[in-house]
Design goal:
Layout: H1 10-15, E1 23-27, E2 33-38, H2 39-47, H3 75-82, H4 85-93, E3 97-102, E4 107-110, H5 112-118, H6 122-125, H7 130-135, H8 143-150, E5 154-159, E6 165-174, E7 180-189, H9 190-210, E8 214-215, E9 226-227, H10 232-241, E10 248-251, H11 258-268, E11 276-280, H12 286-294, E12 295-296, E13 309-310, H13 312-315, E14 320-324, H14 331-343, E15 345-347, E16 354-356, E17 360-365, H15 369-374, H16 380-386, E18 389-392, H17 400-418, E19 423-424, H18 426-434, H19 440-454, E20 459-460, H20 472-475, H21 481-500, H22 503-510, H23 514-523
Helix pairs in contact: 9-17, 10-11, 14-16, 17-18, 17-19, 21-22, 22-23
Domain PAS: 83-152
Domain PAC: 150-202
Domain Sigma-54 factor interaction: 229-453
């Protein structure tokens, strides 16, 4: 056999390739071993018209399992090789699975890796014909039988009984007469390959979305709060004003995280050791708001506690008071709140003595307070007292770089809570990142918790999403572009109306005018009951 060196051309290598071999050794200029060149590689090069190229470009360091054996061999030679302790030691040390049959398709050997990959034990298949294994449902098809039939290497995807899929590459070992003596198969777990590709895709997707995103460390008490480019200036300002007692107004849509920002400011302030009290002004019956804010004396009204009760202003003494949805505070109570804000003192309901407190006030609303002032629905003097520093908290749709980290954060949280190990597919991540999130972070957290609880599979895919979130192609039969566009538009309007309850807010969330959404609602026969303008 002619010595093969790195400078030899493909044409010369083909001409002198030893008959019956799958691979030969290649040597460098000094005579040192450089690797192997296989007949498969040479054939591929010839098909590409690369006859004059040096074989150095096709040399490999190690041989795949099928190339470790010659194409033709006597039965006694193979049995002697196969039964050797060295052969079994080599096969059992491989990471890939190995499956060996005789020329009729009867199982002779499987290595430890095959048992690990498939869960099939040697005693279950040894001595059995591949056809019987198919009949018993252990495997779906046999690459070994295909290789015996075609007398050439065969690669196919095989499904085994535990629903895993494996890639099987079977190479027939031929006799000098051209008969198949044995079939040697290498096996790889395609399920594992898909999982690794899934993780790689996810890592790429994650990197794309979090490259500009930072997190507050866990010891900060904010459970890895996500801070992206859109909110970084906001938190920088929060750090600055936290050291003062300046009153702060947080404006932004429902669910954007105003309460979290208020708590963050409190944690960074000189009052961080004091109490943080929070009250939603719109969630309390109007006749009880004053008593909740300022407290009451014994016997002040029917149903009052005999000993009276402190209000939230007193409970927050020395700390921070967060008044959420301040725009919902009745006008007649805005006067009393103004006095408390200006002087840090007030009287309880039914009381005659002034109560002095030391409280830092932060307020929030999803409405435009300035517009309410112009409409006479909010006191101008109170507006300016509360609005020393204003934070405009952007909606989640304007903070898309934060969506994926938030999904991961809540997925980890609810996986832990419900003892699950759910994962979101890259396709689902991509879809959710492009969703408008009219309910913002609150909607996102709600959706993730729901998906963790109700999905049956480990992987959460687009098909697992609620109908209004799924692409139209998953929910409907194919129609014309005009029909499908109309269906999607109607679905988006319905969801926005359901989320916000008014045409004004829904239109704003969709980025269109109120008159435009009203026209479209008429077109799609959508009605809003008891709309609050």
């Amino acid at each position: 056999m002619k010595d093969y060196n790195l400078k030899m051309t493909i044409e010369a290598a083909i001409t002198h390739f030893p008959q019956g071999s799958n691979a030969v050794k290649v040597y460098d200029e000094t005579g040192g071993f450089a690797g192997y060149i296989t007949m498969d590689a040479l054939s591929a090069a010839v098909q590409q018209g690369e006859l004059t190229r040096p074989i150095s470009q096709f040399v490999i360091a190690d041989l795949p399992i099928p190339n470790m054996l010659p194409n033709s061999i006597s039965s006694s030679q193979f049995e002697s090789f196969f039964q050797s302790e060295f052969c079994r030691l080599v096969f059992n040390s491989l990471y890939d699975g190995v499956y060996v049959t005789d020329g009729k398709g009867t199982t002779l050997f499987i290595n430890k890796a095959y048992q690990r990959i498939t869960g099939i034990k040697e005693e279950e298949v040894y001595g059995k014909h591949m056809g019987h294994l198919i009949e018993e449902g252990i495997i779906s098809i046999s690459a070994s039988l295909e290789a015996i039939l075609k007398k050439q290497p065969v690669t196919l995807i095989q499904k085994i009984r535990n629903e895993r899929r494996i890639i099987v590459s079977s190479t027939p070992i031929m006799s000098a007469k051209g008969d198949v003596l044995y079939v040697l198969s290498s096996v790889r777990d395609i399920t594992e390959l898909i999982r690794l590709k899934h993780e790689l895709d996810l890592q790429k997707l994650t990197f794309k979305h979090v490259a500009d995103t930072s997190f507050l460390p866990e010891h900060s008490g904010f459970d890895n709060l996500v801070i992206g480019p859109s909110t970084r200036p906001l938190f920088k300002l929060a750090d600055k004003v936290a050291k003062t007692d300046a009153k702060i107004l947080l404006q932004g849509e429902t669910g954007v995280g105003k309460s979290l920002i208020a708590k963050y400011i409190h944690s960074r302030s000189l009052r961080s050791n004091g109490t943080f009290m929070e009250i939603n002004c719109g969630a309390i019956p109007e006749h009880l708001v004053e008593a909740e804010l300022f407290g009451y004396e014994p016997g002040s009204f029917t149903g009052a506690l005999k000993q009276g009760k402190k209000g939230i202003f007193e409970e927050a003494n020395g700390g921070t008071l967060f008044l959420d949805e301040i725009a919902d505070l009745p006008l007649h109570l805005q006067v009393k709140l103004l006095k408390a804000v200006e002087e840090n003192r007030f009287m309880r309901v039914g009381g005659t003595e002034t109560v002095q407190v030391d409280v830092r006030i932060i307020t929030a609303t999803h409405r435009n307070l300035k517009n309410l002032v112009n409409e006479g629905r909010f006191r101008e003097d109170l507006y300016y007292r509360l609005n020393i520093v204003t934070f405009e908290v952007p909606p989640l749709r304007d903070r898309r770089e934060e969506i994926m980290p938030l999904l991961e954060m809540y997925l980890n949280r609810y996986n832990t809570k419900y003892e699950e190990d759910k994962k979101i597919t890259p396709e689902c991540y991509e879809w959710l990142t492009n969703y408008g999130w009219p309910g913002n972070i609150r909607e996102l957290a709600n959706l993730v918790e729901r998906l963790v609880v109700i999905t049956f599979n480990t992987d959460i895919d687009v098909s697992d999403l609620p109908p209004f979130l799924q692409p139209a192609i998953l929910k409907t039969e194919t129609g014309t572009l005009k029909e499908e566009t109309a269906k999607l538009e109607r679905s988006l309007i319905l969801e926005a109306i359901h989320q916000y309850g008014s045409t004004r807010s829904a239109a704003k969330s969709l980025g269109i005018s109120q008159s435009a959404i009203v026209q479209k609602m008429k077109k799609y026969h959508i009605r809003v009951e008891n709309e609050s303008k």
